[in-house]
Amino acid sequence: MMEGETQAYDYGGGGFCMKVKFWGVRGSLPAPILPNEIENKIVQAVLGARGVDLDDNEAVSNYVSTLPYFQRTTTGGNTSCVQVSGENTEIILDAGSGIRQLGIELMQGPCGQGQGCIHLLISHTHWDHIMGFPFFTPAYAPGNQIIVYGRHPRIKERFQDQHQPDHFPVSLETMSADVKFVELDDKRKISIGEFVVSSIALRHPGGSFSYRIEKNGSAFVYATDAEYKGLSPEAMERYISFYADSEALVFDAQFTLEDAMEKEGWGHSSSMVGVDIALKANIKKLILFHHEPSYNDEKLQEIYDKTIRYYEMIKAGRNLEIIMAREGLEMEI
Fold first, then answer.
1. Shared-domain flag, residues 68 and 141
2. Which of 171, 245, 294, 299 makes a 20 to 30 Å CA pair with 255?
3. What is the structure's pLDDT at 16?
4. Within the chain, which residues score under 70 in pLDDT?
């Protein structure tokens, strides 16, 4: 293949919008909400309910809807997994623990009849990004086709390692679906159904890769597990160019700016850097992602509020929507 040439991997599509849903948004390891945190949310909600007619279901629902996000619900504790759906194509970005619930959902459709085709793009093979694959139900249904793509060498062997008896009781070969592995390189774009997909290397221990998914002139970029060193225009040009003019950028914002400085070399970034990059790249939506497992909902809300204040200080008339990724978040691109 020549540089810039597009390789097709079957399954055509038509003119339909891209739908995105987040199934796992944490980094490093799953972080289920703690019992005392749930109790505290309830206490705070009850304390704020003075004057609300608790016998009126509608009044209670209206009250709950006015609570701050971090009080009324939770960001979620599953690790990285994002679903991108087209008219006839299902792409999944990463197989963190969030893919388990997604698999259950997919079994309600063609996958449940052994007629599904899933395209799984892997940013890298650290545990938090592949740990959910052994629990991905469609892979155990005969007739389904699961195509796993990655830029790392020996991508199949990396998945097989996770299924070794030392780590998991069921081998990769036991999966009844047709599971295939495709090693990508940076010299071509590929077409997956109605989408065109390209990738770029990110700075992360062991290597990680960002994916740009395009259709009908619109682009969605997934860029998790990345550290940006040397924020000079020259150092940032390759990233700005790859992210440029996308409708949405999923950005590794695991650390606060202070933590990012203390943990240099860990391979993660902050929301403030995300704002800088998004504004330079003319992004419409910046989605803060790969949340630090030790940050609870209140801490994440604090980070979000600080990020908005920073954006308001530097936006200079430029428009950017900033979104804190959470499980269940859906959008159309």
1. no
2. 245
3. 53
4. 1-16, 231, 265-266
